[in-house]
Structure to design on (425 residues):
């Protein structure tokens, strides 16, 4: 572990930067349906806008992972600050599909740049305790979603518009930008250990286990992030408090990640991933087959399931494949977000088709979307959405079921293996 007198300050500033990332997810999830109504956007268009953040993320996290050792983590985080500020301002003044698309892309680039710098930063300053500290760092992702969704819920109740809700993200953005501009950064763990860039790329390209983890990252990211981002859209006609389901789920994630140390120590990273897949599958099943209060039980179980997915996947690679360095961690994050973006667009179109299939034959969708509340057209559309939302969740359930099998194999494969040391050859 590299010694730096500013280790705690660097960790706090990293958490603030991730808080902005997660606030963008939480607030957007809370206002997504409203944006659709205000700008007359269908589910496919909303899916594309939401997915844009996931496009920008892999683009930024992969490029950032490739240059972080060259330009340094500090400069990379100042780039994230600029894109966050730009994306927030553009969102506030957006007027339709394309302005929302561009502003969301800017925020996605900022979010990916934060992860590109902060994941290797946390792994570097806590190299003796990577998986636990990555879980502690990433608790601010669900933490920010809890804060964001609660802000949307409460500010909606008192009539505060979505532009002001988005604008609140400027406060932590300015804070983390200021802190990072004043702090001194170490070099990454890979650079400090004398492992060359060539050796890092060789480890990434020619290690089969790394590519297995990339594929598994597709599934863990989709299970966690697609469901969280779309839960209000999918279940708002099933429950009057759909956005609170997301708040409960992410609240469970915050608590779980805060207690990551004894959990990881007891079960190992691969054991935690297996248990997570089982609980995520059970939670999705409950969300897709329940109504009323049982939906909240489903949200709790699902939150327990996806709680450790993202940080533990990164921690597993950093601990067991340390020579992959920053590029290995960032390829993992980029792969996860890319998979979510593709899945989100596909499922947005599928959701529209499901709704259309549940309306009378030959129905004009626009006529139903434009219908006044309480009319027969509006009631028919609500019933169609009520049936279509759980079907999307049930289709997604296949993914954690496959993950259960895969993580079972990984668990037995890793038994008896010792963690390799990071050193130059």
């Amino acid at each position: 572990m590299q010694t730096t007198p500013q280790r705690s300050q660097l960790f706090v500033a990293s958490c603030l930067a991730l808080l902005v990332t997660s606030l963008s997810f939480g607030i957007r999830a809370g206002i997504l349906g409203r944006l659709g109504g205000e700008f007359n956007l269908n589910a496919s268009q909303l899916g594309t806008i939401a997915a844009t953040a996931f496009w920008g993320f892999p683009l930024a996290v992969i490029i950032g992972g490739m240059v972080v050792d060259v330009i340094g983590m500090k400069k990379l985080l100042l780039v994230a600050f600029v894109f966050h500020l730009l994306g927030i301002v553009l969102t506030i003044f957006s007027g339709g599909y394309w302005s929302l698309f561009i502003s969301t892309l800017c925020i996605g680039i900022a979010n990916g740049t934060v992860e590109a710098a902060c994941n290797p930063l946390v792994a570097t300053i806590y190299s003796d305790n990577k998986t636990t500290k990555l879980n502690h760092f990433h608790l601010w992702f669900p933490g920010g979603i809890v804060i964001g969704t609660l802000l949307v819920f409460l500010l909606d109740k008192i009539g505060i518009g979505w532009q002001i809700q988005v604008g609140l993200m400027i406060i932590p953005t300015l804070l983390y930008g200021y802190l990072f501009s004043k702090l001194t950064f170490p070099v990454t763990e890979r650079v400090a250990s004398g492992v060359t860039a060539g050796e890092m790329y060789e480890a990434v390209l020619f290690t089969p286990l790394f590519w297995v983890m990339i594929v598994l990252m597709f599934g863990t990211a989709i299970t966690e992030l697609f469901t969280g981002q779309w839960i209000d859209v999918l279940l708002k006609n099933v429950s009057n408090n759909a956005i609170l389901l997301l708040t409960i789920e992410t609240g469970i994630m915050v608590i779980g990640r805060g207690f990551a140390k004894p959990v990881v120590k007891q079960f190992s990273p691969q054991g935690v991933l297996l248990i997570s897949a089982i609980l995520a599958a059970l939670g999705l099943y409950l969300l897709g087959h329940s109504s009323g209060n049982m939906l909240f039980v489903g949200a709790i179980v699902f939150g327990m399931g996806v709680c450790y997915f993202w940080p533990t996947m990164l921690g597993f690679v950093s601990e067991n494949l340390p020579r992959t360095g920053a590029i290995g961690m960032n390829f993992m994050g980029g792969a996860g977000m890319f998979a979510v973006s593709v899945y989100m667009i596909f499922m947005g179109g599928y959701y529209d088709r499901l709704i259309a299939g549940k309306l009378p034959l030959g129905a004009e969708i626009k006529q139903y979307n434009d219908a006044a509340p309480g009319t027969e057209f509006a009631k028919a559309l609500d019933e169609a959405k009520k049936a279509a939302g759980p079907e999307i969740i049930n289709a997604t359930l296949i993914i954690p079921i496959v993950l259960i099998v895969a993580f079972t194999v990984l668990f037995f494969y890793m038994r008896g293996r010792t963690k390799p040391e990071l050193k130059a050859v």
